């Protein structure tokens, strides 16, 4: 067991974890952050994408111990869900019907936020390339791409910082 | 109380944003794997690495000794309470079907079949211990592939004596729906056109994003199963029918379900094992599959060889179509396994007036993962066959593919039309959908560009693919299902509860897993009852709440479940009217109902339906001849399928030197009758398109010759990404041909995109290189296959080679661990 101290969605947490424990399992099983999900076992699908110090990572590809001393943001910390004040990218996914079953959505949104932080005014091609690591089976990507472009447009000039 | 002026404008047809989204975009989700119960134990499965083997022994001692392991159980540890996996649709009375135990004790019939289950306090500990289960197998010869199976030299199930499960035949001459197809073919051979083709429908994997998961909680009076399923009601029925637990003691909940596409239309070995273990131990248990397990053991789809003979006169008027399918069931006849190809039987004639038709379907058993429904289920295969061969007919006659279709299709004034397959198409307008699609696509301009590039001998050639599809959906009229020997009906149930404060609960037997029922059904009820959209709550997916239903598949939820909802709402209005007349001291004949309010004609006296709900709750003043309740329920059994149709046009660029294909443009005009929510409809079409396009270009489940699934991870099974796809033009006709057999005039849309798009894409690829002597390219149209087709005029090479070009000759299994010869440390994923 190894002791880790980190910040998750703005709260400081501290736990003893097995060195082999993946960050995604730590989030889900120890912290109950079930908004972040596991969709594959080969780091292809991106459903588990979270932010580590503000950059997107696939949390199935990071050990919990690697997050020691760092800041993690999950879909549950992206906005204050209690009063319904959504992040512009969340709002764009809703507005543009960028989700159906919603399973890929947390990862897709976290990746999109990172993409827009890097490139606040992307072309369709840049959005498509930027989301290549996230799989969706429902939407055919059409409305996901539209959502990201919509978010870029609606927050142009102010960035899309988490 | 909601004042009447708040009543909404018309909801149906509005692009309402979805009610479901708020929780899904904020991570406030209830996936089955999110559920944690006190004292819950976790399961890991030990699976066979062999496609066919007898089980010699299972040594569980080391696993039992591992930390926090509670139990290790195999098939022989259970009796009848383990139950069986059912086949609900024996397609012929003499269908041969092997017994299907969830966890066989003696013999496995496909790689991935479960032989033991480990129960531990954590999922990780269960998986660790599964690796320690030592299973001795005696490997048996395995039969892989349809053509091998047909030879019967190696048997998937030796006890059956054959691999042939059932032969199902429809013949229009015998049925009296058309003439004799052999006669038509003979005549065409003498003085017409005969086109013979063999098409391969490769095996696909539904690959829903949420891996299957099941939680069983035996601690209450009812045993509860939570499952990532499309079919909670059928699941409950099958548990009761096969495991000895009374149906009234079973509660099934499908919480948030992350996609299905037919892949969760199954009653699974994993569910049955979790059920048995939970009951045995008296503790809640959870099993969640890994993606590799999902790809290996959740059912696959498609997998047919289609042998086709099309007869036509010299002008291209089709005179007959003969279809023989050989369909791979895999190792077992799954819940509707044999029925899936038979669903295609009625669709090979598509939108056309073929005078004669014969359909034969031979199902075969092999030592591979069992197959069953995948989006479209039988109809994409049929549509592919007919739309591909119609292009070949156009080429033979020397006319545009759309022209050959128009010569043969049913004209809009000819509806209702009884087809050669015996279905009555109630409405349609193929001319209008085609005209609109051509206009949006820029058909004539693209044809001109194609000619220019061809004349100039460009390295990159342009191809235009056409698919004018129809489908039968809205499964299904119960009597029709009965005539096909299906084991259940096709009705749907709904109830409407008027709550005391005026809000409305709607209960539906349909079970959504991403489709947006909560939004679309709210729109329907809001309009019908005249209450605000926000005041309607749609409840589903829990047999304690929605006690009756037949679930979600076959593009049925709106057209069957939505109609049940309309009828339940209308009953509420009838009751409310009676109460309103009483309270307003007026005759019912003098009342009119509009905008959620009953008014006495010619006066300003009236009462809102939501006020009546409160009055019925208080029950202080109501007529003697009614109960104090406005609630109502309805069960709707459709009288016919419905027949959405559309024209899909695809432009593909093909690099003739490298074989690389690139989608340039995709336009579809679908006629799906009246639209409840255009936003949801376009989403359904987009997603459907990409699944169909993926069959054309990328996806294939490949078993090697020993029966190992070599496309057993997302590294090898090529799901398309955002970078592989384009944005689509999705349009509809201005005047839809509405369905005449439901009140709302709606037709199904969930499967349309998938059914239509595959042939449009392959037709486009072939069209780009037809002038080079190519008339077919086997799916998926990988660059290698396209290049080979261009350079040899053939179909583009063998399936396996093209599907895994990155494997060396000696690899035999890529990144898959190869099984040992006689023993393995359990492959418990």
UniProtKB/TrEMBL annotation, chain A:
Q: Where does the 2Fe-2S ferredoxin-type domain lie?
A: 2-78
Q: Which UniProt keywords apply?
A: 2Fe-2S, Iron, Iron-sulfur, Metal-binding, Oxidoreductase
A Pfam family found in this protein is Fer2_2
Signal peptide range:
none
Q: Which Gene3D superfamilies has this protein been placed in?
A: 3.10.20.30, [2Fe-2S]-binding domain
Family matches, as InterPro entries: 2Fe-2S-bd, 2Fe-2S-bd_dom_sf, 2Fe-2S_ferredoxin-like_sf, 2Fe-2S_ferredoxin-type, Beta-grasp_dom_sf, Diverse_Oxidoreductases
The protein's name = (2Fe-2S)-binding protein
Q: Which organism is it from?
A: Nocardioides aestuarii
From TrEMBL, chain B:
Which named protein is this?
A: Xanthine dehydrogenase family protein molybdopterin-binding subunit
Which organism is the protein's source?
Nocardioides aestuarii
**Matches recorded under Gene3D superfamilies:** Aldehyde oxidase/xanthine dehydrogenase, a/b hammerhead, Aldehyde oxidase/xanthine dehydrogenase, molybdopterin binding domain
Residue segments, region Disordered: 1-21, 791-829
Bias class Basic and acidic residues marks the residues at 8-21
**Which InterPro entries would you find in this protein's record?**
Ald_Oxase/Xan_DH_a/b, Ald_Oxase/Xan_DH_a/b_sf, Ald_Oxase/xanthine_DH-like, AldOxase/xan_DH_MoCoBD1, AldOxase/xan_DH_MoCoBD2, AldOxase/xan_DH_Mopterin-bd_sf
Aldehyde oxidase/xanthine dehydrogenase a/b hammerhead domain: which residues?
A: 26-141
The record's listing under Pfam families reads: Ald_Xan_dh_C, MoCoBD_1, MoCoBD_2
Q: Please list the residue ranges that the record marks as compositionally biased, kind Polar residues.
A: 818-829
Highest taxon, organism lineage: Bacteria
Is Membrane a UniProt keyword of this protein?
yes
Q: Which terms are listed as keywords in the entry?
A: Membrane, Molybdenum, Oxidoreductase, Transmembrane, Transmembrane helix
Q: Which residues cross the membrane?
A: 329-352
């Amino acid at each position: 067991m190894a002791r880790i101290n980190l910040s998750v969605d703005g709260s400081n947490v501290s736990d003893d974890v097995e060195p082999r424990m993946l960050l995604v399992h730590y989030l889900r099983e120890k912290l109950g952050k079930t908004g972040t999900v596991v969709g594959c076992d080969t780091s292809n699908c991106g459903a588990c994408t979270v932010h580590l110090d503000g950059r997107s990572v696939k949390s199935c590809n990071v050990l919990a111990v690697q997050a020691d001393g760092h800041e993690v943001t999950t879909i549950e910390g992206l906005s204050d869900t209690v009063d319904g004040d959504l992040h512009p990218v969340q709002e764009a996914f809703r507005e543009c019907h960028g989700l159906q079953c919603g399973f890929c959505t947390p990862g897709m949104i976290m990746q999109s936020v990172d993409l827009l932080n890097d490139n606040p005014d992307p072309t369709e091609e840049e959005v498509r390339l930027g989301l290549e690591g996230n799989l969706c089976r429902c939407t055919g990507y059409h409305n996901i791409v539209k959502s990201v472009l919509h978010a870029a447009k609606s927050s142009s000039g102010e960035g899309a910082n988490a | 109380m909601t004042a009447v002026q708040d009543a909404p404008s018309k909801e149906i047809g509005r692009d309402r944003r979805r009610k479901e989204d708020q929780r899904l975009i904020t991570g406030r989700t209830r996936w089955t794997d999110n559920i944690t119960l006190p004292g819950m134990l976790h399961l890991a499965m030990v699976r066979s690495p062999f496609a066919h083997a007898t089980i010699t022994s299972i040594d569980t001692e080391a696993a039992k000794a591992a930390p926090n392991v509670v139990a290790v159980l195999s098939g022989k540890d259970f009796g009848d309470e383990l139950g069986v996996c059912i086949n609900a649709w024996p397609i012929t009375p003499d269908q041969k079907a092997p017994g299907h135990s969830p966890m066989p004790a003696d013999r496995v019939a496909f790689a991935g079949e479960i032989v033991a289950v480990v129960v531990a306090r954590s999922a990780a500990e269960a998986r660790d211990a599964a690796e320690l289960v030592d299973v001795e197998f005696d490997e048996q010869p395995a039969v892989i592939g349809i053509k091998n199976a047909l030879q019967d030299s190696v048997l998937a199930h030796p006890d059956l004596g054959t691999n042939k499960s059932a032969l199902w035949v429809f013949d229009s001459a015998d049925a009296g729906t058309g003439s004799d197809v052999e006669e038509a073919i003979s005549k065409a051979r003498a003085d017409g056109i005969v086109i013979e083709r063999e098409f391969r429908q490769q095996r696909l994997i539904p690959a829903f994003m949420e891996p299957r998961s099941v939680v069983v909680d035996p601690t209450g009076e009812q045993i509860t199963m939570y499952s990532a399923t499309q079919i909670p009601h059928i699941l409950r029925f099958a548990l009761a029918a096969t495991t000895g637990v009374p149906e009234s003691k079973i509660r099934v909940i499908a919480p948030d379900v992350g996609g299905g596409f037919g892949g969760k239309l199954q009653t699974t070995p994993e569910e049955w094992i979790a059920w048995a273990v939970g009951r045995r131990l008296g503790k809640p248990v959870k099993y969640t599959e890994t993606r590799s397990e999902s790809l290996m053991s959740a059912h696959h789809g498609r997998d047919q060889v289609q042998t086709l003979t099309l007869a036509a006169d010299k002008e291209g008027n089709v005179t007959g179509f003969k279809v023989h399918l050989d369909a791979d069931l895999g190792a077992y006849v799954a819940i509707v396994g044999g029925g899936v190809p038979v669903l295609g039987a009625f669709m090979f004639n598509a939108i056309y007036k073929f005078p004669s038709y014969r359909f034969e379907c031979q199902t075969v058993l092999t030592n591979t993962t069992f197959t069953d429904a995948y989006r479209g289920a039988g109809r994409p295969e049929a549509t592919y066959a007919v739309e591909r061969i119609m292009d070949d007919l156009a080429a033979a006659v020397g006319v545009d593919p759309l022209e050959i279709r128009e010569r043969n299709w049913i004209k809009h004034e000819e509806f209702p039309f009884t087809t050669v397959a015996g279905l009555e198409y109630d409405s349609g307008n193929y001319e209008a959908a085609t005209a609109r699609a051509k206009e949006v696509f820029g058909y004539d301009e693209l044809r001109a560009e194609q000619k220019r590039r061809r004349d100039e001998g460009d390295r990159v050639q342009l191809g235009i693919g056409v698919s004018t599809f129809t489908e039968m959906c809205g499964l299904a009229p119960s009597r029709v299902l009965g005539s096909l020997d299906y084991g259940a009906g096709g009705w749907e149930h709904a109830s409407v509860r008027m709550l005391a404060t005026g809000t409305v609960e709607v209960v539906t037997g349909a079970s959504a897993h991403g489709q947006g029922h909560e939004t679309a059904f709210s729109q329907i009820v809001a309009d019908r009852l005249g209450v605000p959209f926000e005041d309607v709550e749609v409840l589903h997916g829990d047999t304690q709440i929605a006690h009756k239903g037949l679930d979600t598949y076959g593009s049925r939820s709106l057209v069957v479940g939505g109609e049940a909802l309309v009828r339940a709402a209308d009953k509420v209005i009838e009751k409310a009217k009676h109460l309103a007349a009483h309270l307003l001291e007026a005759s019912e004949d003098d009342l009119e109902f509009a905008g959620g309010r009953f008014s006495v004609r010619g006066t300003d006296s009236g009462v809102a339906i939501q006020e009546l709900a409160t009055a019925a709750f208080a029950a202080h003043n109501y007529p003697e001849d009614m109960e104090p309740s406005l609630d109502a329920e309805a069960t709707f059994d459709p009288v016919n399928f419905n027949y959405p149709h559309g024209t899909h046009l695809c432009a593909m660029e093909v690099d003739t030197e490298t074989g690389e294909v690139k989608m340039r443009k995709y336009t579809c005009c679908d006629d799906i009758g009246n639209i409840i929510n255009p936003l949801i409809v376009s989403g359904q079409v987009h997603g459907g398109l990409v699944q169909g396009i993926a069959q054309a270009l990328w996806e294939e489940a490949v078993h090697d010759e020993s029966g190992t699934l070599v496309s057993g991870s997302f590294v090898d099974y090529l799901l398309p990404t955002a970078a592989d796809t384009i944005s689509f033009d999705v349009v509809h006709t201005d005047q839809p041909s509405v369905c005449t057999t439901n009140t709302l005039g709606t037709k199904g849309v969930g499967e349309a995109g998938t059914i239509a798009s595959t042939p449009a894409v392959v037709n486009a690829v072939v069209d780009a290189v037809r002038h080079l002597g190519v008339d077919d390219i086997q799916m998926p149209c990988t660059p290698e296959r396209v290049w080979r087709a261009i350079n040899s005029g053939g179909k583009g090479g063998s399936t396996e080679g093209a599907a895994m070009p990155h494997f060396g000759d000696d690899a035999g299994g890529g990144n898959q661990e190869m099984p040992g010869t006689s023993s393995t440390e359990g492959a418990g994923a």
